[in-house]
From TrEMBL:
Name of the protein this chain belongs to: Acetyl-coenzyme A synthetase
InterPro entries: Ac_CoA_lig (IPR011904), ACAS_N (IPR032387), AMP-bd_C (IPR025110), AMP-bd_C_sf (IPR045851), AMP-binding_CS (IPR020845), AMP-dep_synth/lig_dom (IPR000873), ANL_N_sf (IPR042099)
SUPFAM superfamilies named in the record: Acetyl-CoA synthetase-like
GO cellular component, one term: cytosol
UniProt-listed Enzyme Commission number(s): 6.2.1.1
Any one GO BP annotation for this protein: acetyl-CoA biosynthetic process from acetate
Name of the coding gene: acs
Residues with PTM N6-acetyllysine: 611
GO molecular function: acetate-CoA ligase activity; AMP binding; ATP binding; metal ion binding
Domain AMP-binding enzyme C-terminal: 533-611
PTM characteristics: Acetylated. Deacetylation by the SIR2-homolog deacetylase activates the enzyme.
Residues engaged in binding CoA: 193-196, 312, 525
Family annotation (HAMAP family): Ac_CoA_synth (MF_01123)
Amino acid sequence: MSEPAIANLYSEQRTFPPPESFAAQANANDPSIYEEAEADPEGWWAQHARQLRWMRDFDTVLEWTPPHAKWFIGGELNVADNCLDRHVDAGYGEQIAFYWEGEPGDTRALSYAELKDEVSRFANALRGLGVGKGDRVAIYLPMIPELPVAMLACARIGAIHSVVFAGFSSQALVDRVDDADARVVITADGAYRKGNVVPLKESTDKAIAATDRIETSIVVRRTGAEVDMQAGRDHWYHELVSGQSTECPAEPMDAEDVLYILYTSGTTGKPKGIVHTTGGYLTHVAATQRLVFDLKADSDVYWCAADIGWVTGHSYIVYGPLACRATSVLYEGAPDYPGKDRWWEIANRYGVTILYTAPTAIRAFMKWGAEYPQEHDLSSIRLLGSVGEPINPEAWMWYHQHIGGGNAPVVDTWWQTETGGIMITPLPGITHAKPGSAMVPFPGVKPVVVDDAGEPVPRGSGGYLTLQRPWPGMMRTLWGDDERYRHTYWSSFGPDVYFAGDGAKLDEDGHIWLLGRVDDVMNVSGHRISTTEVESALVDHPKVAEAAVTGRKDELTGEAIVAFVTLRGAEEGNDELAAELREHVAERIGKLARPANVLFTPDLPKTRSGKIMRRLLKDIAEGRELGDVSTLANADIVEELSKSSAGGD
Ligand code: WTA
């Protein structure tokens, strides 16, 4: 096979040590934490597990029969009890758990005591409908307080939730309901999106008609839109909870009982139901919340601006923050509604201290211009996080400077739906961060970058990212398909080596740089070049707002690089600028990385979660018939692009 990714094509030299004042107060500021965890990983995780409230203590930390792990064997606990009752019992009932901000501007603040009561009422209602331990409940809700309430109510009674992102189609809901065999779905009369109402109940009705599994639907009134309620099947949430008792004993759960299923897309059409369990998952998200986000329960206002429909929201809006008694912001809407400064207005109003978002959002803010954050005082922000894709150094620098005021550490956190929690990341009080690098493993985690033969690569080289030691938040299997679990993740390099599907390189200091999915790695003249590195070089050009790069087949070089570029502000694309950008990449990386084609476009095709659809761009670049694009957030851009690329060669 071909040689691993070219080493240090584009190596970022700047480093950002933690400011002294930050390090002095940080939850982790002694580098010996790494040695301590390395000396006894199981003991390290057990020590974090013991910070939770167990109804029965565990007697064995780990049983590892690759590829199946069991953590905290014999232990019993309840996730909702840990996220709510534990804090209320300790006297923090009055503390705000969520400052919720609706898109139209309505607000709600929920204290830990209020959240516990609401969760208990709804848990009783679910029990009343016959939902019990182990039953699957589909949740198809927008970002309203009832979404975390529904998840926690399931957790309280031991039901397994399967949250389906509200931006997904009704067909996606059907697929997930069928696969998990869910009998109950929780939805809303509608969802707000940039001033419009998305008819969620209608989608749900369509889904229910297309599957024979759903017996009960529960509908939250959010927009007041008129909806069809079918007697006997559909129930209003507010009617169900009114009159319910706020007493609802939390079900003792085995550490290995399933907490939730979350579907993610794989290489085939059928979504994969990632299974997460109770004790290990909660331990992992709580430990990372505390150490990576340096969370101070008494003073921070934390905001993870993801959607709960994705794993980032499960782990770092709901379970991690609540396990650590955080006060969080929960925002329903879009970042540019009604204005492009909506986030900064919210951040300022609540005095947000920690912000966690994705590079794609950061690049959108860059494109809109620094004047929007500048209109608001963001001096409360003391820590920034990034997740979801490699962050190009320019976006890192912009984030650091314009949102973090030049002194808030930035943590670039690598992880996946499958890993449950953060795996590779700086620790903000210890690590000297390099813009664009996720840097080092979280203590106790063992990533190894390997070559085609599965051998560790030397420093300065690239290869495939693997994980070679079990961790508590790891998925346990794929729902109903253990064979696919084994085959997808544990067969490429050996039965006890987890293959993440990402390319990575180790720099000369041994720091880890994520290169994107390996299916996004191009091979040009026998050299493997990451789409990310070329994108990063393009975005480094002052006229470029965002870039997506893909390979297309080329007779001479195997693959040739095609770059799709959106420009900043009023810039116009033309041949001269295309040539300039090709040269710019050649300068930053080397001639071998120079794009064969540069295509200008007003927007890039993206999934509803904001990931650029590179597969689609590849189809466009190679002039192929385009498949179904209905899951895109902006399907109309695809037609424009295919027209422009037809003459673009
Ligand atoms: C990518 C999101 C580089 C990666 C939590 C991974 C990243 C996939 C980073 C998982 C990062 C996530 N740097 N790449 N900091 N974080 N990724 O399951 O390709 O939606 O495999 O989980 O996102 O996406 P998922």
